[in-house]
């Protein structure tokens, strides 16, 4: 069962003098105090399950490896603990009371303000390692943690890091989560780019009720052998002395060599998986007994006794700690609950751009197509912000993007700032959480909207929730570019629309420009926004080769032009002087819909007003509702399928908000409801809306 040997055959780093500068007994005694705290905390939680707000996990059995790790990290390091790492947090300097405040979901919970489960930490404290938002999704933290290493490596390369510190990233996870595909993506990237990350794998041989034997063919140490260049070692995670030496070697190696390492620690599981999944439900007495033999607390106690520490003194320590934990738990129980009025705080960090600024149409300016407006915006961003980088599939030097949207950028700024990644959408998106946490400002690209789905784990579990669950400490500043829409015979796998799916994710912003000027202004504002922004860029508008889209080509704004997110635009105004109320209508649309609407409106001069939303979230409800109230009739036009769509939801909101002003039902028009846009129907423009279909809808709506 337990594999005890340390195996680190090629470590170049040596143990630092730091371990030798503190007496061995002092280290052991400090570790023992922390172990007793963790044990007594687990016991008091178990005795008070009925008042604990959520199910929770504790570190019983994992104390030795966690404390050996936490004691050797510095405040300039970064850590990504997982939900069983309360002993590690104690060793980093967090108090039992602080941890208990999160357990009981109290208002003064220093991590999330009562928003999250126990042992889901985050911290920006100057005297402890930095900890970005941690989620419950097993294995999902490995990509953001690797992104931290990617960011640190970049900042060191360009001279924006403190040279004397050489921070490391500690990423902790259970062995069961190593089977996640996203862990492989992270390890691949860490080795490829030689990032300063320590992957600490705590293997207790259980994944809830599933044993290691039935769920995996190898442990993490054996798995790591497949990643050439990933240093690795195995350690008995219940032996504190062995753990302290091993983690000291691992940390020293990464700090000096700036390369990744994986440490596989075999540990017993002495507690329940969680308070809600009891160990006696799925584990045999024999298994429990085997794990109890490896309890790190009596093992360390025996070492202290053997070193001459008096047993009476140990008994006094144990009694004092038990009383201390009891007092702190009572104090935490009495702490104030969160103020319900704050429940919507920190969904987003305050936007950086609140109003339109700069010159939109400079005198003697040149007209550009949308793809060039985007290219120039990114180029200007990279010129102004040395901490900005741009990466994704095929955006590097050789191709510059499959739509040439990154052409020449790598030549101008170097392969360390504009570069290709593997086909790893989860890594491309998820790494931005770690990059942002260390101060890098990433711009990334998903090659086609249809292929964003592998990134949804990261987008949902990590990026969108980070600001909220960290109580505002860790918003994720990232700009995610996504070419979208039907164009060029893309067919079923390159012509999809994904905005409705994205808009179900609370905590991200979604932008959808329809012309070159908006593209540049929104791109700049999206980059400056401290929150995650997904920018949907219609492939059919990139070069305005689709008939009727020439208006997307516009004079390029100056480099100082920014356009705030959440502000729509009147594209075409009606002229109702000679009409009565109810004889005009408005079209609410975005993207390619703007041009279908403009073409159709030529058949109804003066009767149609067109609103381009530009941003789908946040949404310019004031402009929408005022326009609908003015006309009394409204068509919501989208390229998406209608069933369960953003367009239908928006129509419902308009119907409710403008009910007294409406002279007809709110109409919606979108793509035919099919599993995908078929190749032949796309080419014939049958499945999609088009100007003729829009004109027919206008005529029908005006007839009410």
Overall mean pLDDT stands at: 93
Oligomer: single chain
Main sheet: strands, sense, barrel = 7 strands, mixed
Distance between the termini: 76 Å
| Number of strand segments | 21
Relative strand content:
5-15%
Describe the protein's architecture and organization.
The chain has 704 residues and is an alpha/beta fold. The chain is 38% helix and 14% strand. The strands form five sheets. A seven-stranded mixed sheet has the order 10-9-11-12-14-13-19, sandwiched between helices. The protein is elongated and about 100 Å long. Mean pLDDT is 93; it is low at 1-10.
Question: TL;DR?
Answer:
With 704 residues, the protein is α/β, with parallel strands linked by helices.
Main features:
single chain, 704 residues, alpha/beta, seven-stranded mixed β-sheet, five-stranded parallel β-sheet, 14% strand, elongated, disordered N terminus
